[in-house]
Each structure stands twice: as C-alpha cells, then as structure tokens.
Amino acid sequence: MRLYPLENRRVLRxxxxxxxxxxxxxxxxxxxPRTAFVDLQGKIVAVADQFLLSEDEARIALExxxxxxxxxxxxxxxxxxxxxxEADEGMSAAFDxxxxxxxxxxxxxxTDVSDGEYLLYRVKNHLPLxxxxxxxxxxxxxxxxxxxxxxxxxxxxxxxxxxVHYRSRPPRKLVVRRESECGARERxxxxxxxxxxGAGEHVGFVFVTDSV
Length: 212
Fold this sequence. Notes:
Blueprint: E1 3-5, E2 9-15, H1 18-25, E3 34-38, E4 44-54, E5 57-63, H2 67-78, E6 84-87, E7 91-96, E8 101-106, H3 115-124, H4 139-142, H5 158-167, E9 172-178, H6 184-189, E10 191-196, E11 201-209
Antiparallel strand pairs: 1-7, 2-5, 2-6, 3-4, 4-5, 7-8, 9-11, 10-11
C-alpha cells in the first residue's frame, strides 16, 4: 500500500437506520464508496466517502470545512427519525494509491507518498477536491455517474439530477486539461495545477462549457 494521509478529512458516524437515511438523503446507494449530498437544485452541499458497516451504522468522511454545512443541511431530516450523525474523533482517513480508495483507521496514518505525488495522482485520475477544485456546482457538472444511483428511488435533489441526466447536460463541466490546451482565462482559473512528467507540462482542473 502507498498511503497518503487525508489530514483535512473528518469522519462522521451515522447511527440508527443509517442505511435507510443515506438512501433517502444522499445521491448514491450506501454500499458504494462515494456519495454526495445535494440541495433541491441538484447543487453540491458536500461530497463524501462512505463506509456501510451495517443497516444501522455507517461512516462518512468529508473535508473539515464542510462538516457544519452538511450537519445544517441534514438537521431537519434528522429530527424526523432516530438517526444520529456525530463526529468520530478517533478515526482518520488516508488514500491508498495502489487500490485507488480511501481507508479509515484509528489514530494517524504514516506518510508513504509526497504531496506532489498525490496531487499528480489526483489530477490524472480525475479526483477533484471540494473546496479546491469545486464547491456548490451542479453535481453532474463535476462528477459523472459514479456518485449517483438512478435506481435506488427518490432522494433530496433527485428530480434535477435525473432531469439533467436524461434530458440535457450540465451547462459546464470540470475536466482535466494540459496547460497548452487552455486559453488565458482557463489557465488563470486552473486548480490543482501540477507538473506532469509524462505530458512534459502542467496539468490541472478547469471548467469548460457544454459545447466543448
């Protein structure tokens, strides 16, 4: 394993009917590794890694600055049932570059990968980071279908997500571009900019319009 500690990632424990709650208020089925929470317009509130332990318990991991936002977003729905979401202070997250997945564990993970190596991996594998590469965008403008289930039934924001998926396209899309492929405006707006030895130039994330 080549592990990169995700030091800004916070772990939340979801208890009591956790699977049912995540099915109702997140975009993906709770058995999938990643999901999102969106508003009624289909725009991102927070994206999260998820770990279903049982029908009654799960963990989600997201960037620290979005914890309060997601709790506020879900507060009125939590009050409708017995589900509880609370910080799991003893757990940390790391990304395994060999497996392409996030791991959780007690305490801190050792660092096996440099910041630059992880950044290049993240860009080349289209793993944008909320708060760095995007925030309150239409979900399908940032991610393709890996964060969405179209078969699990209704969830908050489902109508807009389904409409865009079946009938239209996002007005703009987050893509990975080489710097030489970008105009001046795109170069200035490029996020997670990193030198790619294979390309011989810098690459990063940019938003492009639907026509591209």
